[in-house]
């Protein structure tokens, strides 16, 4: 090898030459980068297994994943060459298109709907008003700091508000996992969970709206214009997700896909992902669309699925979300050292961390006081009152996550690298500080633990073929199950015994599409009278009206049969 060839090899190893000039070398380094990430992911899952099996609650596995990612990222940083370092750095495109969708879909699909809608007023207050307060407070505080011109750093007011929107996205994966292990009261769990999934969507829409005003003068008209864009984006995205979920429910009802569970499961997954990418392609919020598509799929399409599809979708969504969550925490830890272009300003990072804490305080406690006052006026203090211990836990659960880091990738201009570095460090700090001390805070606040969770409607018992809708493959499932239980019970000890008159059970009869369509029009006639009842009902009865309208009008149109008579109450 001559000197010129040797120099070219060294330059390629240092990342100075375009990697595309040597595909074989690029493939080699890609394999090593993926191998490192997979080994870290396996280690994180084994750590999770050890922590859970030994019931170690002092520290959560997500915090360990962040530390491990930091150590490996430091090793890669000091190693020669930049190719692997660039490949394992945080890329917002990978995050939004690969890692985030499974988490959002599983959040909507696994949502405990009865608890969620029971606390919907509190959740929406924290998700919308709370996120707005947090973003504005944080934006004003960091703008004041930049106005003082410390560290030769100055930012525009729009950049400051964008920074506030970026760091107003919470990520309580660690907190909720600890809540699950401690079996914390479902009300506290649901409020934090509901706030977080809607909070991410609100923060993303708010950030994207603010980006449209970069470099423009702000005035009163701009404020109203931004609010209008935000409202339109959010509710159009919600409509897209719900519509695709309803389309999926109707597709399952008016077809025989349940006879082919593998195809059925694939179509359900692809329809959900289609809502995400279609919404993004229309310049709407894919997160909002996918979240409400998942909720709609669970509320309606779930009852039209085959038994196998119910199980497969539930656990496939859960497994994909678990992999994504662990991968994200490792990714964040590594990115502290693998992203070489970041500019760290210690004083600005410290001020931003304090501002994040202050903005969370201004979010939780004033709104909790306002909600409690409203609940007292409605004489519902025992049910809806938010005690101080819950308020403190809500404050502590406001750690920031990867959504903020991914949003920060959208910063442009001379301050971009500083804002990206600050966001990354603040996210990691809040994960370690707040996430690592959640267990101790539960003990300090004397929050009740060991509370039995409500039985949800998606347990294995509710998915048994004779308890759901027309959801089981008659040719391959029901007859085998009945034969095993009647002819030779000992041959299938784990199978529940079918009733003797299973041939007469409605769930095993399947109407033709023409009969389904004719029965659908009959339910439309109930809708007009139902709306008249709603407008004449008292405010306290309207929630019950919505529930009855859903059970008596909407579900009969979308589902194989009236599941309210056969499925457990939510």
UniProtKB/TrEMBL annotation:
It holds the Pfam family Na_H_Exchanger. The keyword Ion transport applies. GO terms for biological process: vacuolar acidification. It is found in: Membrane. The chain crosses the membrane at residues 32-51, 63-88, 94-111, 123-148, 160-179, 188-207, 227-252, 284-303, 315-334, 346-367, 388-411, 417-436. Its main location: membrane. The keyword Transport applies. NCBIfam families: b_cpa1. This is Sodium/hydrogen exchanger.
